[in-house]
Amino acid sequence: MTHFDNSYARLPKRFHTKIAPEMSPAPEMVLWNEGLAEALGVADWDAEICAGNVIPDGADPLAQVYAGHQFGGWSPQLGDGRAVLLGEVVTDQGRFDIHLKGAGRTPYSRNGDGRAWIGPVLREFIVSEFMHAAGIPTTRALAAVRTGGRVQRERAYPGAILTRVAASHIRVGTFQYFTAQGDEEAVRLLTEHVRARHFPQAGSTLELYAEIVKAQARLIAGWMGLGFVHGVMNTDNMAVSGETIDYGPCAFIDGYSPKAVYSSIDRAGRYAYEQQPSMAHWNLAQLGSCFVPQMEAELGGQQQAIEALTEILNSFPDLYQAQWRAVFGAKLGIADPQDADVALIQELLGLMAKDGADFTNTFRGLLDGTARYWVLDRAGFDLWAEHWQARRAPDWQEIIAKASPAVIPRTHRIEEAIQASLAGDDSKAKRLARVLTRPFDLAEEDRDLTHPPREDEVVHQTFCGT
């Protein structure tokens, strides 16, 4: 039996608006995550519930309010413009939000229709479940449902709803919203809520901030190790829990370039692959500013508060670098990567960047000797390999096999699946969803999914679908 306990709904009214999802005319299940459903105790849910037509017992639907910096520009009120939080399910593994994305208009829709179409819903389902399987903290996907309605974008598309599961949907922008209003009580209540829910080990506001900084360092290093480009690292898209959230125009690098940008709206490359660590640092600085009034009260002065928070913020680069070294060291089969190994890692990345070697296949190819063939500078690779062989662990193959997936959600494959679904064929989407939940253990018949796109298949831009 599903056990709801809706702690966010018990926060004061200014944190949210109670609202039910809009009705969907003819819900149809497209993708269903059976394992996650069983873990959450919702195995009996159907398309009617996942479309918001039926509200499960104990749920208390609401839309959350938040603000945020979007590409550096301040937006004082954002919020769940096309999503409804059904409530929080409590299991033996913890507390999880269940969220309907694409469930219709809310007070925060900002003239939008509040709906989603099938393309972004399939993309988020496939990519988020891959990220989970690859060991990256992430929101997860329980269901993808066609609504039976149409959504107007550049043309009319089949409407859809994603049932998203998360540790919470609290963002840096949630803190920013109340800080901008000078609502210190709300910031304090939110701080206490986040501490109790995500970081109970934190005994103070400063310790809470330190835990959030550590979690973000781990998360971004994990992204980098997969060649993942989020695309919209706005402060309203950074979850304080340390999970990846809001997959919009995300993509995975095929031919390696540190400057890779895919999002159609990121015209200046603010959120390019190589920029992601510094952008996370910038977002954390915005969060830190929200804690100043509380810290001032705890430490007895504004200057003391700013200095203490700045010290924590300034720890991020070193924390991130240590995580990055561990992630990429494992991809080289190094059991105990040291500072000196950073040059070895960077040298391989440099060889890959020269001619856009395939990111995933090069690292996975270290297992079977095929990495050399993805890099055009073979002489340079051979010289590099001599140093690498001297550093790799006795069980290096086992280490690499666990650190470098054999297959990733390549954008051209996702687009292929979306186009097939638009034509009424969901088999390609179902295949990706199945294969990408076991990305380190690829069956022979699925090896075609490891191929980079042909020149005519390359997807140069991705779109958020709003």
Quick synopsis:
The chain has helices spanning 34-40, 47-50, 118-133, 172-180, 184-198, 205-226, 276-290, 292-299, 302-313, 316-331, 341-355, 359-364, 371-374, 378-391, 396-403, 411-422, 427-435; strands at residues 16-18, 28-32, 62-64, 68-70, 73-75, 83-91, 94-101, 116-117, 140-152, 156-166, 228-229, 251-252. With 466 residues, the chain is of the alpha+beta class.
Comma- or semicolon-separated keywords:
two-stranded antiparallel sheet, metal-binding, alpha+beta, nucleotidyltransferase, six-stranded antiparallel beta sheet, 17 helices, manganese ion binding, EC 2.7.7.-, 466 residues, 14% strand
Overview of this protein structure:
This protein has 466 residues and is of the alpha+beta class. Among the domains are: 8-166, no CATH class; 323-403, no CATH class. The chain contains 17 helices and twelve strands. The strands form four sheets. Strands 2, 6, 7, 8, 9 and 10 form a six-stranded antiparallel beta sheet that branches. Helix 10 (316-331) packs across helix 15. The longest helix is centred in the middle third of the chain and has 22 residues, at 205-226. It is globular, with a radius of gyration of 22 Å.
